[in-house]
Amino acid sequence: MYGPIKQLLIKHPLSVVSPPPWLRRCLRVTGYCGLVLAVLINILLCFAIDNSPQQVIAQGLNREDIERAKQILHIKPEERDSIKNLSLNAKDLNIAASYLLNHFVENTTAIRFESGRLIFQIAIFVPASPWGRYLDFSFNIRQNQQGLYLKSLKIGEISIPDPMANWLVPFIVHNTVLEQYWQLARQYVQSVNINDQTLDISYLSAIVEQAKQLAVQKHKDYPSLPIYQHQINEIVNQHDPAWRLSLTELLQPLFATAYQRSHENSAIQENRAVIIAAASYVFKGELRRYLPIGLIYNKEYPVFAYKRVDIPQHFIASALLSAADNILLGQQMGLDKEVGDAQQGSGFSFIDINSDQAGSRFGQLATASAESARRLQKIMAETSSYTDLIPDPQGLEEHMDENSFKTRYNSIDSPAYKQVIQQINDRIAALPLYQH
């Protein structure tokens, strides 16, 4: 039955049809273009990314910074419909930039005034790659009669022409999550003026409430919060009240669940949900009234680390400020232990800073990237001690009143103070969790 087909194949054998010359040329040109593009991208990455940032890495936000942020964002009820004038110095701008950028990406930022212009240097931490670990940006913002404009934009070692930079930056803003904040600024900011050492802004006070609503809206995107709430209830129900409830006893099973539930695209969101749920338990009623979530727990025990309740509070507060919505939290959280200074309360404490810095680093790792989020989940799922999260505070001074602090350290800019901060950072960096 196959005879006719066989004869047909013998008379008309099958052959591979060769593409016409014009198509071969197009394919060849396309291949060359793809190769050239790949080479150019690699060259650009070599010049854009480096193993060390251009500027010195700034320390995390300290207690005074957070207090200042609260003062800047505070709006009295009678001021909500009024126009407010704000004068920000370089330190204020660095605090604001850190709050905003830390919500999206791990970074270090340096802003300064020079000859009537603002100079920005930003280093974004990127996943380890053959090209390096830091993506550097630097640019100036100047002002003329037409308004603000961008000058001298550099990405790593690559200089971007001013006309292209003034097109590129708005394009990025309008096509990312920054667009909603840009629209908010356009609607409520009345004027912006760059002076020699300050940035003067006139704005409608209602912008703070609107910014808070943007943050609140994001919290509604955590459908897994009830799961972690239920798990916390199970943890505290099974806890022996004769023993202290450890910070690790609370966090380890939550992150184990997050690791099981997550995939690469959801790990950051799951980590934020875990940190929000854990913080709402650690702070009991102090935090819950500020978050648009109904977290109610059956039993409520103090949470300890190093036989103290203030250390977990500082740690989880800073983790929350780094991982969650900083505009909302920076304005409203009544974290007296976090923002107290040497002039009141229990006095200045390097033990508090030790916990703050570790918590801030923890929150950054939890949300810096999908890879970082998954790595933290895996480590936390196997962690058995809070000593893996917070360095031992032994030897760090605390309870210093204002006079004691000035006698020993003079100011936070003194070499003696910076030496202690460096010791704290070295302790944190020595923990395997924070090495990557």
- Mean pLDDT over the residues: 76
Silhouette:
globular
Report helical residue fraction: 40-55%
Q: What structural class is derived from the secondary structure elements?
A: alpha+beta
Order of helices and strands: HHEHEHEEEEEHHEEHHEHHHEHHHHHHH
- Helical stretch tally: 18
Our Rg estimate from Cα atoms comes to 27 Å
| Count of distinct strands | 11
Strand percentage, roughly? 15-25%
**What is the total number of structural domains?**
2
Distance between the termini: 70 Å
List low-confidence stretches: 326-344
Major sheet attributes:
6 strands, antiparallel
Topology:
Layout lengths: L2 H9 L9 H28 E2 L12 H11 L9 E6 L1 H13 L4 E8 L2 E13 L2 E13 L2 E9 L2 E3 L1 H13 L3 H11 E6 L4 E6 L1 H14 L5 H14 L6 E2 H15 L5 H16 L2 H4 L14 E2 L5 H14 L2 H7 L3 H4 L10 H18 L2 H12 L20 H8 L5 H16 L6
Helix pairs in contact: 3-4, 3-13, 6-7, 8-9, 8-10, 9-10, 9-16, 10-12, 12-15, 15-18
